[in-house]
Amino acid sequence: MSGLVSYHAGLAAETAVAQLYARSGRSIAATRWRGSAGEIDLIARDGAEVIFIEVKKSSTHALAAEHLTRRQMDRIYASASEFLAGEPAGQGTEARFDVALVDSVGRIEILENAFAA
C-alpha cells in the first residue's frame, strides 16, 4: 500500500509545483512527458525559454534533494534533447533544468538551473 501512497503523494507534489509555476506566469507545456530515454515530470515555458522540472518529494527538502542521482540527470538530459528537437529552434532553444523539492507538509523549494551546479 505504501507504494500507492507514494505514487499519489508524488502526483500531488507535481500538481502543486505546476500550479506554482503557472501562478508565476509560466505556462505548463507538458506533465509527465515521456521520451525514449524516460520521463520528465514537468515542462514549462517562460517566453521562449523551456524549463525542464524534476520534482522530488520527501520528508525534508534536504532528503528530497538527495534522491536526485547522476543517472536520473543523464536520463532527463537525453529526454530534454528529444523534446527540444521538436522546438522551432531545435537544440538552440534556450533551456534550463530546475529541481523542485517538496517536503512532507507541502512546502516547495525551487532550485533554478540546478543541473548547472
TrEMBL record:
Domain of life: Bacteria
Gene Ontology MF, one: nucleic acid binding
UniProt cross-references to HAMAP family, sorted A to Z: UPF0102
PANTHER family named among the record's database cross-references: UPF0102 PROTEIN YRAN
Protein family according to the UniProt entry: Belongs to the UPF0102 family.
Protein name: UPF0102 protein Rsw2DRAFT_0106
